[in-house]
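Dear support,

We are seeing what looks like truncated structure output for some complexes. This example has two components. We would appreciate it if you could run it in full and send us the complete token output so we can diff it against ours.
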Amino acid sequence: MGLQEVWFTLVAVLFVGYFVLEGFDFGVGMLFPVLGRTDDRRRVLLNTIGPVWDGNEVWVITAGGALFAAFPDWYATLFSGFYLALLLILVTLILRICAIEWRGKIDDPIWRKRCDLGIMIGSWVPAVLWGVAFANIVRGVAINENKQVTSGFFALLNPYALLGGATTAIVFALHGAVFLALKTSGEVRTDSVKVAFRLSIPAVVVAGSFVLWTQLAYGKSWTWLLVAVAAAALLAVVALTKVEREGWAFVFTTVAVIGAVALLFSSLYPNLMPSSTNEAYNLTIYNASSSPYTLKVMTWAAAFMTPVVLVYQGWTYWVFRQRISVAQIPPSIGLPLKQG
Amino acid sequence: MDVLDISRWQFGITTVYHFVLVPLTIGLAPILAVMQTMWVITKKDHWYRLTKFFGKLFLINFALGVATGIVQEFQFGMNWSEYSRFVGDVFGAPLALEGLVAFFLESTFLGLWIFGWDRLPKLVHLATIWLVAIGVNASAFFIIAANSFMQHPVGARYNPERGRAELTSIWELLTNNTALAAFPHVVAGALLTAGTFVAGVAGWWMVRSMRQAKAAAEPEVAAEHETTARTMFRPAAVLGMWLILASGIALAITGDVQGKLMFEQQPMKMASAESLCHTETGADFSILTVGTQNNCDSITQLIKIPGVTSFLAKNDVHATVEGVTELQARYEKLYGPGNYKPNLFVTYWTFRAMIGWAIGSGLLALAGLWLTRRGRVPDNRWFGWLSILAIPTPFLGNSAGWVFTEMGRQPWVVAPNPTGVAQIRLLVSQGVSDHPSSTVIISLVTFTLLYAALGVVWFVLIRRYVIAGPLEHDAHPPGPDSGGGPADPDQPKQLSFAY
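Here is the complete output from our reference environment:
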């Protein structure tokens, strides 16, 4: 395996990390209207991800940096080519970050309602758009001889990509519901398991069609294995949420996310962004990569730092392993909006 | 406006905005770590209260810093894709390292710090805030190493086949003398900002508490206010003031080192900053000029200090310093026809604003240290005002400094240097993404409106929490008996902190 393959794999690993971790963060935010009927319950939901969501988000920032360092042409073509879609993702992520951090700072129902709206928008929009974006990467967009994407924003909204967006949305919502079942107790847990079960069946249908489409249109013969893994994992989630085994269900939603992302990247290989206009203009891991020296330096850095990051992030989850219920939510210590 | 100008405005707005927030984060994180360390060592509740009080302000600020930081990671590719292709092999490495080494560290351990007060042993919890402080400062180092490549490209070679810069030595890139000079300068600026913030907020509260003590009818209430002023706000204010002095001196020294380096590496930037239109021997330092904007020949220098520009450049009042006109002629020979002059008006005034705004922090520190000498606790109303008014000044100075250093690099995005790799150079106009103007206008307007709205909320929150002061809720550290919630032992304990 050459260094370009190593870095293609590492980029895939970073996005797997991002979608597994931020996937349930998004899911939690997406389920605010369903599982967070009262303010106390919304605070339970929010505090399951409270200590970890920011660390989870760094996965995408590092993925962006890794793309820049290892495949500068991919970074340049993708980010300039998907400009408006990325703008939407950025804007909604910004809203979400501020809404999460600032929600409890002011003790006022309207303030909280606005923040909840920010959290929901900031969870739904990126959850859909990441799927749309990745489906389009696999499908190919119009790239010209100067490595420029010539198709606009609306060309991204094709049926395959929309199905991709629906897939990430429903899978993240399911992943989030299972995560909530695992991290809460009492009523919130019971409701989360129920919601997870109800989501799992349409998730099998939507995500199943998407991975099948991906396999038939863009897959390689061996990637049938990944299709099988993703589909089997989701089916297992149906059964496990039915019998309320949320721990195992979480393992399998995680496997499903890993399988699906692995399928997308494997279908892509050795391309990074196929061109729909001319195969000669495809961005590949060979013509878009950095020099061997840069790849070597970055490989050493990743080899040393990634395990360290995994250990301390893993430790964080261990520290906050306790389930949360409404009874454990302390009274709000936010200040009233106006000075009293 | 064409797409280049719109893209530059967007980059300028999003980056300067981000860098209003970041210095406070970089400087306040170590101050919080020191405050919490003082609490752990002395076991005095007021250090705990100060940690919690400034910790809340830190978090309000941190959120917006993180949010606007994501844009930074993506917008090189979005708006400066041709720049990204040209330098990605070199410039991407420090950005990726920043994520791997710094961002993971600060974000993960900040989560542990916020939620871990009663979950972690005291010393482990203390370690988390120190790791946050290390993380934010490490991120500053990597991004400055990346920026320094644009100012002074080293550690790379030009690959004519691929038409791009390629990394040849990560060590040379990370020990770029430009970065080694700029990093301490930026950190000193961040400490000045946070020092001023802490001194300003605590100073204002010190005066306020003393006046409340005076106004109180009952002697017990008066004594309580005075104790708060003396034992809590005074030490915090004094800590901030000494930090202002220390970081102020560090700023002057590192600024001087960096300035001399810039006279060598980007003489055009410095000549423009001094509005030195023609080469002079024993060049004067101008304090005030008038003229039509950005036109060398129209400038009249009103106040000058003899020889200082030469001294700043080369430690010698009689040295010869090249002027803008001569440099322009030299660059035309080297790089072909074109305008190689940065905006004279902007560089001249931002350079002076950067230095000039330090007066706010300086006045606060000197007045404050005088008023608090030998255990005094002042109640002068004017000092309360000075405390508040000084707070924004280092923020303005930081912004001016970055605008200066980046505008002074124009028209280059990667500036060719006598000591850099000569073939590695790129004009800003060559780096921009090929978008229709309308596309970038959409994002420019979106970011500007969103940032403006969030900036208002940020200000309201900071102001609200400063005025509220340390909360009653945080008066005492969570002990084994202060779990709160129902006394029933079967009931799980309430969280010590929840969103």
